[in-house]
Design brief:
- InterPro entries: Anoct_dimer, Anoctamin, Anoctamin_TM.
- This protein has 26 helices and 14 strands.
- With about 800 residues, it is mainly alpha-helical.
- The strands form 7 sheets. A two-stranded antiparallel ribbon has the order 1-2. Strands 3-4 form a two-stranded antiparallel ribbon.
- It is elongated and about 120 Å long.
- The protein starts with 11 loop residues before the first strand and ends with a helix.
């Protein structure tokens, strides 16, 4: 490839950095546009069919209602007028974008340190006023203007983010209703009332060995009432609703994407094979050079290098990189598991230490203190490991030496997603599915390192602890990582680059007056791609859908975050980042597959959360199988087993055998086991197996029903809107008609030209015959006159 560089007379030197303006000649632009198969509008326009009747009136009314929500962006042509578009040809003189593959290669080889298009003067002002301004948070985004300024790839990201935020509105409303339902029914919840009833006088077994004493079940009243806010019959409905919501979101995005493809003339666009990356070419050259030098012991010429570039890297060449990737990925996941295990040990040891305190307030708040501090520690570790895992994923991807930029991006996204997903959700998965199930029973507890007893859930269940962990992690990541880091880090990097420029921090105002546009853009943060933006939204989508059964307010907090996120990202792109090179894309790529995968996993996880983490299934089993009157009265007593305190292991019994001044003979613990006076003491009871069977049956039924409903939604909603398919069909007919008319016009012009040339040739021949023979001139003239008339 060849690049044509024109050095302008505005070359400047600032702190040893030289700026060169690069100009692409017109013939290069035309050639690249033709290679890109860029679709451009023709001069032929047609009127888009408008709605009629009642539908038109409703649409007009809706347009008037939402008119204040639209940005004040000038429309260059009426919405009902559409230009026919066709693939660019060099015969058509239209402006196109320049494909900067040569620049990328030069950057990869270190010829230039940076290359970026300059920010315009007028467009950023309009974008800032109508898009990047927090004061217009209630308005729709000017996606068309964003696409014209930044390109289709970035335009699709903000279109997807805007649609995702809009779809969170109904999910937030339903989640708030579910939460309010829990608040309204908490006083009527029979299990909570039984736990809070001090007259029941239920003595519970100690929560830890030696230092912990017996305790009254009524002391867990607050936890039981709080658990009902998130563990009630409406939770099942909300889980089904969110699964269908995810399917609706996917289908709605596909339709929105097709509409944007039509409006942006991307309907016939296909991703072309990318050019090899500079690092890949260099690696192939090094491999080929070393092999040829070993074989022939001679210097490689440039012609030989061009021939060697045809070769590719084989799987054998990449095998060490693949093995390194596998080992490092497993190692990083192991690090995450080790940190989660360390937090578990922190909870166990801290709880034991707080229960040994002489302060009764400290002992009474030990559970809440341990839960909150452990969740905060998990959040800090997640934030740190996110940065580490992002760097590790990039290093591993570079090690693989992918051939094209698209392959590099997809591999980097996949590795980063796996590591960050495991990092964010491993502590939550432990609390949801493992905590409280590996405990054992009084007299036969399970221990870690023979001294730390495994954790138990509170009597209200682990769902409340799951809610605390999920809310702190989600809100912390959104507040600290997604907002503060996005605001603070670019400004800090900009300040560092400015200090390194040796201009002086006190000459900022004067420097801004003197610097040119390309010099000002040099101090902005380089555009690093959309991967971080998509990644934080995919992780948030996981928080919203995966464990929504335990935290129905998650969509509301996601909505509030995204309202700020859209304007924050917009402001960052307009004022904090260098203008990225416009890139074409017809979809969001691998991110759609990740969204689809998260949505499918969410159905399974929510089924297990409802079935195994909450008490929904045990309550239903008791009410319909074991309750004497078909009500929930007696449910709490039914879930508690008996333990004879004389059966404690030596050295594990409480130091104080008395409780409230009375000796304790029997204590209760939450489990389905036979009492000590039965023929099979402390064995798992038949009721346990009945509850387990119903739990598994619920998982299977829930998963299949929700998947079926999602498939029905997918089948009912077409991927392409009907009006768009009709317009595409109409455009094809109009294009064929336009080309036929052009061909007929060319043929008519050619025929008339042939007739004129024939007449001129005949006249010239007739004049020559007159001069040569006067006797034959008369009849020949008559003959030719008749012939001419017949023609």
């Amino acid at each position: 490839q060849y690049l044509y560089f024109y050095l302008s007379n505005e070359c400047e030197y600032i702190s040893g950095v030289s700026f060169v303006k690069i100009h692409a000649p017109w013939n290069i632009l035309c050639r690249e546009a033709e290679l890109m198969k860029l679709k451009m509008p023709t001069k032929k326009v047609y009127e888009v069919k408008q709605l009629r009747g009642v539908v038109e009136k409703i649409s007009s009314l809706v347009s008037k209602v939402v008119e204040p929500l639209h940005p004040q962006v000038e429309e260059h042509q009426p919405k009902n007028i559409k230009h026919l578009s066709h693939t660019f040809s060099r015969e058509k003189q239209h402006l196109v974008c320049f494909l900067s593959t040569g620049i990328t290669s030069l950057l990869g080889h270190g010829v230039y340190t940076a290359a970026y298009p300059l920010h315009d003067v007028s467009s950023p002002r309009l974008l800032y006023e109508e898009w990047a301004n927090y004061g217009v948070f209630y308005k729709y985004q000017p996606i068309g203007l964003v696409r014209k300024y930044f390109g289709e790839k970035i335009g699709l990201y903000f279109a997807w983010l805007g649609l995702y935020t809009q779809m969170l509105i109904p999910a937030s409303l339903v989640g708030v209703i579910v939460f309010l339902y829990g608040c309204a029914t908490v006083n009527d919840n029979i299990p909570s009332m039984e736990i809070c009833n001090t007259m029941n006088n239920i003595t519970m077994c100690p929560l830890c060995d030696r230092v912990c004493s017996y305790w009254e079940l009524s002391s867990a009243c607050a936890t039981a009432r709080a658990s009902h806010l998130f563990d009630n019959p409406a939770t099942v409905f909300f889980s089904i609703f969110m699964a269908l919501w995810a399917a609706m979101f996917m289908e709605h995005w596909k339709r929105r994407q097709m509409r944007l493809n039509y409006e942006w003339d991307l309907t016939g666009f296909e991703d072309e094979e990318d050019h090899p990356r500079a690092e890949y070419e260099l690696r192939v050259m090094q491999k080929s050079t070393s092999k040829d030098q070993k074989a022939q012991h001679k210097v490689i010429t440039w012609q030989a290098l061009k021939t060697l570039c045809i070769k590719k890297l084989t799987c054998q060449d990449r095998l060490p990189a693949y093995m390194t990737n596998l080992v490092m990925m497993l190692l990083m996941i192991g690090v995450t598991f080790a940190i989660v295990f360390g937090v578990i040990l922190y909870r166990i040891s801290t709880k034991a230490a707080l229960y040994m305190s002489a302060n009764p307030v400290t002992r009474s708040n030990a559970q809440l203190t341990v839960k909150t501090t452990a969740a905060i520690i998990n959040l800090v570790v997640i934030l740190i490991l996110d940065e580490v895992y992002g760097a590790v994923a990039r290093w591993l991807t570079v090690l693989e030496v992918p051939k094209t930029d698209k392959s590099f991006e997809e591999r980097l996204i996949f590795k980063t997603f796996i590591l960050k997903f495991v990092n964010a959700f491993t502590p939550i998965i432990y609390i949801a599915f493992f905590r409280g199930r590996l405990v054992g029973r009084p007299g036969s507890y399970l221990y870690v390192f023979e001294s730390y007893r495994m954790e138990e859930c509170a009597h209200g269940g682990c769902l409340m602890e799951l809610c605390i962990q999920l809310s702190i992690t989600m809100l912390g990541k959104q507040l600290i990582q997604n907002n503060l880091f996005e605001i603070g880090v670019p400004k800090l990097k900009k300040l560092i680059r400015y200090i390194r420029s040796k201009q002086g921090a006190f000459q900022e105002e004067e420097r801004q007056k003197k610097l040119q546009r390309y010099e000002t853009d040099h101090f902005l943060e380089p555009f690093a791609g959309l991967t971080p933006e998509y990644m934080e939204m995919i992780i948030q989508f996981g928080f919203v859908t995966l464990f929504v059964a335990s935290f129905p307010l998650a969509p509301l907090f996601a909505l509030l975050n995204n309202i700020i996120e859209i304007r924050l990202d917009a402001k960052k792109f307009v004022t904090e980042l260098r203008r990225p090179v416009a890139a074409r894309a017809k979809d969001i790529g691998i991110w759609y597959n990740l969204l689809r995968g998260v949505a499918n996993v969410a159905v399974i996880i929510n089924a297990f959360v409802i079935s195994f983490t909450s008490d929904f299934i045990p309550r239903m089993v008791y009410q319909y199988m074991y309750s004497p009157d078909g009500s929930m009265h007696g449910f709490v007593n039914n879930t508690l087993s008996y333990f004879n305190v004389s059966h404690f292991q030596q050295g594990k019994e409480p130091m104080d055998p008395l409780y409230l001044g009375h000796p304790v003979q029997m204590c209760r613990y939450k489990d389905y086991r036979d009492p000590p006076w039965s023929t099979t003491p402390y064995e798992i009871s038949k009721e346990f197996w009945a509850v387990l069977a119903v739990r598994l049956a619920f998982v299977i039924v829930f998963q299949n029903v929700v998947m079926l409903m999602s498939d029905i939604v997918d089948w009912l909603i077409p991927d392409i809107p009907k009006d768009i398919s009709l317009q595409i069909h109409k455009e094809k007919i109009l294009l064929v008609d336009l080309f036929l008319k052009e061909e007929q016009g060319k043929a008519g012009n050619l025929e008339r030209r042939s007739c004129v040339e024939g007449k001129e040739n005949w006249s010239s021949s007739n004049n020559n015959n007159k001069h040569s023979s006067s006797t034959a001139a008369q009849p020949r003239s008559g003959l030719h006159t008749n012939s001419t008339n017949s023609l």
